Structures are given as C-alpha cells and as structure tokens.
Amino acid sequence: MRHLYGAAGLALLVGAAPAGAVEGGNIRGGEHEGFSRIVMEIDPTTEWSLETIDGRATIFFPGKSITYTTGNTFDMLPRDRIADVRTGIVEAGTVISVDLGCDDCRVSTSFVGARYLALDVSDADRKSAFDLPDLDAEEDDAQVETAEVSGTPDVPPGLPLAPEQPVIPLVDLTPPNAEPIPLEDRPAVVADAPETDEERDERETQVVSSAEQTLIEQIERAARQGLITLEEADDGISDTSLEQARPQFADTTPPPRPVAPEASLPPTVPMALQEPGSRPNDILSNMLDSGQIQATTVFERESALHAQRLREEASPATCIPDFRLDIAYWSDGSPLFDQVPVMMNEILGEFDEPDPVVVTELAQLYIHFGFGAEAINVLESFDSQARDRALLIEMAKLVDGKRVSPYGPLGRKEPCPGRHGMWLALGGVAPTYHNESHFESVENAFGDLPSSLRLMLGPKLIENLLIAGQPDPARRIYDIIVRSGSEESQEVKIAKAMLDADDGHARDAVQALSSMYESNAGDPVEVLGNMVDIALEANYPVPDRTITDMRGAALEHRGTEREVAIRALLAQALAARNELIPAVTELTEANADLRNPPEIEEAAAHIFANADPEKVGPANFAKVALGLDDLLSRRPENDAARINVARHLLDMSLPNAAVDVLDPAMGRNDEARILMARAHLNQGNYGSARKTIEGDESQQAAEVRARSWAMEGQFDRATEILEDADLSAEAASLAWQAGDWVTVTETETDEQRSTMAKYMAASDGLVEQPPLTEDPSELSPPQAFLEPLPQLDSPSIDATRRLLATGNQLDDFVAEILERE
Description:
By secondary structure, this protein is an alpha+beta fold.
C-alpha cells in the first residue's frame, strides 16, 4: 500500500519532535543572534572534513553513504547567511554543500550533544568565543586604592539616623534537627556587638555541622537521581532498581523487596562507616576517604547516555517477552488528557533529572493512544536511561506510519514469536511471514491490541503480508480488524481494495477506490495514489483525467512531503503510458524543485528497469538513456535499471553508451560484467572483453571469451573453450566460421547451410564427390546444388541438357536462400 503522506501527530501537552536516527535524516536549520546554524545527525565515530572556498562550505564524510534530506531545513531559517543546502552521495562518500549568502561571513563547526554536527555561519564582526583578550592593554597597578569602611553610613544632611536594628542572617544556619525558634524570641544580634571566643566557636561549629549535614542529604538525593554513585554498605538497604520498581520492565519476576526500615529511623544514606556518636563531618570524611563517593560530570554523563543509545540501536540479542510489550496495560483506562498532566508533574525529580520510569510510561501511554510523534518527543526531550528507548522510538514511528531503521530493534532478521514478532512484521525489515505456527502467535498478538491501534496498524501489516506473497494471512488480519465492529477507516478500505486486487479483482478494487476518490471523503490524495498503484500493477491504462488530477495534487501540496510521492507516482504513470520522455522530464524537474529526494531516484530506477525501446521507440529510448546518470546515482540499488538499459543499447548497436551506463555496477554485479564484455566485443576490444570477465567460469563468460578468440581467428581455441564449458551446440556454430565443413554437415540442422557445407567439403576433397544422376530434371534444389557440373571441354547434347536441368533447380535453391535472408 502506498502511503503518500504519513499520519500527522497531534500536539498534546508536549510538542511533537521528529524522531532521530544514528545517522542521516533531515538537516534542520535555525536562526540565532548573530549567526545561522544547520545541524545533522551523525555517529560520533564518523570522520568528516570541512572546506570553505568561493562562497561555499562543503562538509565531506569519506567512505560513507549517508542519506540526508533538506525538505524542512529552511522552515525556521532565512536565506541571508545560508542561501542553500544540497546533499549528495558520490563514490568516495557523502557531500553536504552549503551556499553562503554573505561574502565575509565566518564558518565554523562544532559537535553538539554527542550526536549532532553543527555548522554555524556568523557575521564577520561577531566576537568569537575563542577570541583572546587584548594583551597590550596597560594596567595601572600603582593606582589601586582601598575604600575606607565606616561604621556609620553617609546620609544626606538633615536626615536622622535610623535606630539600630537586629541583624537577621540571610541564610538560616540552625541545625536541621533543632526545634525552630520563633522570630520574635530569637536574640537580637547587634552589628557592632563584640563576640566572645566561645560564641564564635559555637557559631562556627553549628555552621560547619549544618553545611555538612546538608551536603550529605544532597549526596543522598544525587545518588538516587543517578548523578553520583555510592558504593553500597554491607548492612545498608540498597536502592530499589528500575526492574524492582516496575516489574513490567523486568525479564523475569523480580525477587521480593527487602523489609523497609521503620518510619522513625534516620535517613537511608548508607551508614556503615558511621559509628555511634560520630559527627556529620566525620561521616563525610569517612565517605570521601573510603572512595564511597564517585562524582560524574555532565559531559561524562551525556557521553555515557549517548554511548548507551548507540548500543541500544542494535537488534536485541533475544526476543522480548510478551508482558513487556502488552500495550493494553500501558494505560489505566482514563482519558489521555487526564493521565498526561499527572505524569508530566512527576517526570522531573531533584536536580532536574528526568525519572526514567516516568519517561518510559509517558511514551508508552502516547503509543497506546496512537500518538507516535509525541512519544518520540518525550524520549528525545527527556534524555534519560529509559529502558527499551530505541524500541519505543521505532514503535512510535510505526504508529505514525513512518519507516523504521533497518539496523534498529525492529530490524532483527531472526523470527520472534508473539508481540515482538508482530512489531517486527509491522516494521517490514524482517521477513513478515516465516511459517504458520509463527504467524499464529503474531495474529494473536495483533488481536490483543486496542481496537484503535488495530485500525491504525492493521493496513500496514496487510501491506507487508501482501508484499511477502501471503494473501491468506493478510485476509485473516483484515477479518480481525472488521470483527470489532468499529467503523472502517479509509486506510482499512484501501487495504481491502489491495486484497481484492491481489485476489484477481483489480477492476473492482480500482472502481471502489475511484468511488472513494469521487466522494472527496477522507484523504483523496491517499486514495488517488493507491488507485494508480493498483492500476499500474494490473497494467490498466491511466486515463488523461487521472494524470491531470495527479498534476493538480502535486501543485496543491507543493513544498510538502506529499509532493515528492505524488510526482514520483506521476512519472511512473506516464512511463506506463509509454510516454518515456515526459516521465523522465517530470523526474528531472522534481529533482530540481525538491533537491534530489530519494523517492525520485527510486521512481527513476523503476522506470529504467522496465523501459522497452520497442514500445517507446528506439530514438526516444536512446535519448533518455544517454541522460540516465542525471537521475540515478552509483548505488547498488540501481544496478537492475542500468543492466536493462545497457542490454537494449547493445541490441541497438550502441556499445559506447552501454559502457558508460554499466561502469558503476562493474565491481559488484556479474551480469553487468558480462554485458560490459559484450560491449567491448562490439567495440572490437577483444582483449578488454576477456579481461573484464577474467576469473568468471560461468557459461555466459565462456561464450563471450570464445567469441573474442573466434573474432581474432583462433577458432580451435574458441571451440575448445565452449566444449569445456559443456556448450557443444555453441561450439558447433563456430565450425562454419572456422571452415570445418565436415563438422557443419554433421551438426547443422538447417538444410541450406548443410547443403552448402557438403558442397564445400567435396570441393576441398574432404569427402568424395557424389555420382552423376541419370535424370537431373528429377533432382530437388539442394540435390541440384550438390550435383557435379558437366565438363564442357568436349561439348555434347547430353552435357547441355544436364546443365540446363540443374541450372533451373539452382535458381530455385538460391532464390529460397535470398528470400529467407
């Protein structure tokens, strides 16, 4: 099923944000005070370089093919400092080209958040964060004066002095366990009152004791938040782990929690090093001396979190248990708007550190209600060590109708049963169908989903099953969707049309979608796209009206994600009508308008892989083929298109063009090498042809190798190669070129060629001449061709009669050969 536009997430209390990937994706832009910035997501280990020349900054990623898009780069970025951003994948790597809109602006790069590469274009007069101070500035060290401190402040004349007031400290240094003293009962401290040594010692002791007690409490809270690590004391009570706090996150049922201390006991900081009567500063000193405290900087924490995310992106080593993916329990049954505010109030703890349990539960809640963008935003915004973070992001993508990462948790190729298997099937990266018993568990897991998610995810699962060639399981998923009695969504109706088309009722499917489209209900563009898809698959002609509607839809959605899909499908529809030049023109213009989106290249590859010069005309085909590299990159995915075009170019005796088309596929495709060798043969480069297929022991390579030797006159060597490759019939075909007339007479099935070979064999003395027939007028044309000519050195009436009789038959024999040729 073609999705021209994914489901749009609604902003519910938390704004939607795009899901991230390890590398690639959309290049985002933003405007800041004094500079403009674009950011792109990369792996921290990826090598890159920056070159700035002639008003352009170029970032190069060597040895990597990273797909970046620029569709939304300028949504929040004016084109004054950064005029344009273009991306491309070349043989050596990935290139991002940034056209600068200012002549003297400054370009710099930085690594942000351990996952983003940022390119900043700033004004020339903007002060750099790395500018050094002016070292030549002179300092007047001799004019340093100390202000006199007076016990009585200066006041204007005529104003009375205020009476002396008690000085109340700005910070209450009262010990935390002491009873609070009412303000009116506190002794007044006069600013000028002298302080005895005993009072000063007592005050300082209280200050130190209070500060150290507060520090211990802060250390305890920081340990609970994960900012620091405390080694557990032998007789202390350990903190509850994430799995113990939320058993649904554990692989197995956790052990019972330890008995909690009485409520009247002191705080829960491990006190193994505290002895009775120890003062707080002794406790702190012991904790530091024993190495019980381990501090973590923000950089270390963020780097560790990013490293953890990179590890999570890999496919899980084992299948996830069903209870951890039981979406029905990801909500308490109350409305979404009632649950979200409660969780948002609990999501941040002390030190503004997000609670990983609440982050996970909020993302799960959004997925339960079908809001994938909001779930991704929670997981991205609150950068915590939430369990199954990468998996939840991939699930949220599916809920929003987006593609999942082929290397993520839902890219696992091995089968998993139950709910994990269902999400793998939805992802479409792993095989959707393995066997019947496996699918039964997937089917049961789908039936356990909330009805709203079944309506949302079911069409995608049906589509994947149809692509996998499993129409019966796809029909069973459809039956589960409609069994709930809920009103069928547009996506479900489209899925039913796809099922009908797969059952051989494409006309009914097209008519059903046509009625939906004419009613203008729901999303007509989505219906139009799938209707054209089915028509193209069934080889139905796409009428002019539909082409016009598609052009109108592309214009209506100009500048949006939909424009790409509509124009790609429009080009395929034009190609199906054998309008190859208009189709390629549409793709070329779309690339210019949309900055080379990958969907356009996919459509071009499909069109070129199915192009036929007999249908579009040799001249039109050759014209389009010569511009193929403008639409197709050198990626392996385009090899099939290149091979099809090159094969037809060789048939049209255009070997030079075929060589250019095949060049990118030479190092990875055997069929491309065979065609390249054929092209060299047609060019007369026999040695190059043999070198191209060197090491290839296939029969196709042997045939090309033999032809190259035969064209150089070495027929014996060519025949030997063909016979060694078990190509006796092909070897016999070389006997004619080699002049091996006896072999031709034994193997040739064509009567005319066999007759001529017999004649040549007799003329060369390889076989005896046939005897003269008594009545040459009764000979057949082939027999007359073999009949020895009468000797005219001694003329006679009999010789003349025989010559005339065989001559008439020879005319018929030659005429038959000429007519056939």
